[in-house]
Amino acid sequence: MTTIQAPMAVVMIRPHAFRSNPETRADNAFQTDSATGDTAPRALAEFDAAVATLRATGVRVHVFDDTGTQDTPDSVFPNNWFSTHTGGHVALYPMYAENRRRERRPDVIELLKREYRVSDVIDYSGLEQDGLALEGTGAMVLDHIGRIAYVARSHRADPVLLERFCAHFNYEPVCFDATDAQGCPVYHTNVLMGIGTDYALICLSMIHDPERRRTVAERLAENGRTVIDLTPEQIGEFAGNAIELTGHRRLLALSARAHRALTPDQIAVIERSAQLLPLAIPTIETAGGSVRCMIAGIHLTRRPERTAA
């Protein structure tokens, strides 16, 4: 049941002062400005319910609180500033928006070192001073089985830094241009696609170059995956922003909104491999991200629990 694509543990950041981020609104077409006086408490309640659901299904969730003192409105989306990898490797990433750079937390990395086997931490974040950004597993959708990094080109995914990451972590980069129905570039690859063990969710029609579209579809299918071709409308409902996890069984965590957008045939393909786990996060989704963005998977080996002498 367990595969390297579907981690058993995750990091999530609990937002006490949630709001839509004005610094990312210009290029995030999924972001909406719907702030009201009860936005923050509603987001907090959605977060807590999501964590409880994940834990009830057997996923190990490490929760860190963001009290809002650092003015980090997107902190609920930690997958952009760090990632973890088999073999004990951790990467820290440079962020495009200035206020997102404050999301990086030493206490998260210290927990990983304390509870999991970490052999090295490769820190790319200093390259922000050179105007470079590579926003983690938002900018990259990683096939941990085939060792491929799928990337929609954007200013949040610098090509030079991508090549450096792929060389360090042994991934092959597969890049493409993708735009939404309004012709806007896709700001993060993980709103366009998500990869499971036996299937992949992607909107192929948003990749306009026929040759690149064919290449991406072929590479996704190489390891026997079924390619579930989503529509642009389904992408608009965050149907591509999902993550496969391992709990008591293999799961596909996605938002309730995304789940409603899937067709019965698409659901049937997923359910041959994983249980669908819809999480209701409508307030959090106004910030332009969904369930995948909220979850930083831990692909590290857990240290044995110490027993008292």
Written account of the structure:
- This protein is α/β, with parallel strands linked by helices and 309 residues long.
- 27% of the residues lie in helices and 22% in strands.
- It has helices at residues 39-56, 106-115, 136-139, 159-169, 210-221, 232-236, 256-261, 264-271, 282-285, 291-294; strands at residues 9-15, 60-66, 82-85, 89-92, 120-123, 140-143, 148-152, 172-176, 193-195, 199-202, 226-229, 243-246, 250-255, 275-279, 296-298.
- The strands form 5 sheets. Strands 2-1-15 form a 3-stranded mixed sheet. Strands 3-4-5 form a 3-stranded mixed sheet, with no helix packed on it.
- A hairpin with a 3-residue loop joins strand 3 and strand 4.
- The chain is globular.
- The two termini are 34 Å apart.
Write a short abstract of this structure.
InterPro entries: Amdntrnsf_FN0238. The protein has 309 residues and is an alpha/beta fold. Helices cover 27% and strands 22% of the residues.
Helix content: 25-40%
Principal-axes geometry comes out as globular
Instruction: Please provide the ordered H/E string of secondary-structure elements.
Output: EHEEEHEHEEHEEEHEHEEHHEHHE
Rg, alpha carbons: 18 Å
How many helices does DSSP assign?
A: 10
Q: Roughly what is the average pLDDT, rounded to an integer?
A: 93
Q: What proportion strand? A: 15-25%
Structural class: alpha/beta
The description of the largest β-sheet is: 3 strands, mixed
Q: Based on DSSP secondary structure assignment, what is the total number of beta strands?
A: 15
User: What is the terminal-to-terminal distance?
Assistant: 34 Å
- Major sheet: order of its strands? 2-1-15
Residue stretches low in confidence (pLDDT < 50, at least 5 long) are none
